[in-house]
Amino acid sequence: MFGNKKLMGKLISSFVVIAVAVGILVGYRMFVNRNVQEGEKEITVEVKIDDEVNSITFNTDEEFLGQALDEENLIQTKDSTYGRYVVGVNGKLASNSDESWFTIILKKLGLKKDETMVDEDNFEWWYIEVNGEAATDGIDDIAIKDGDTIKFELKVGY
Q1: pTM (2 decimals)?
Q2: What does each C-alpha distance from 96 to 102, 130, 153 come to in angstroms?
Q3: What is the CATH number of domain 41-156?
Q4: Is the Cβ–Cβ distance between 64 and 148 less than 8 Å?
Q5: Distance (Å, rounded) from C-alpha 137 to C-alpha 81?
Q6: Side-chain half-sphere CA neighbours of 58 within 13 A
Q7: Which of 16, 66, 119, 156 is paired with 1 by a 20 to 30 Å CA distance?
Q8: How far is it, in rounded angstroms, from Cα 36 to Cα 142?
Q9: What are the extents of the domains in the chain?
């Protein structure tokens, strides 16, 4: 009898943990999707390299930035544990695009030994703004709206 109570307690605890995890996932998805605008929208992508800015305006039915940029073949990305990150825009690759940002951070912290260390002064990366505000989500989680302006700026150094 005592063994059955232990087993039942473990089962109930496991069920509660799974229910909480599913609830968090569903809640996050609802939060992300609340800003989704369906239908056709026009967005402008500005690409800034040094002092030169090129603008590309196009229409899309996609709901998230990553999908829209993929559809137009405007970005090159790498996958990471946290989702995709941009290594190239409109054909311009960041000079260190062959390494993941996670590997670069590990090298910087001295946790990964490699004969090629990160040159902090020449490290290139893409900074992203949405309507003049720094992006706080990855490209696949940024909901786009009609009239949005997305700016990609190639930054050098940390």
Answers
A1: 0.67
A2: 12, 24, 15
A3: 2.170.130.30
A4: no
A5: 14
A6: 15
A7: 16
A8: 9
A9: 1-34, 41-156
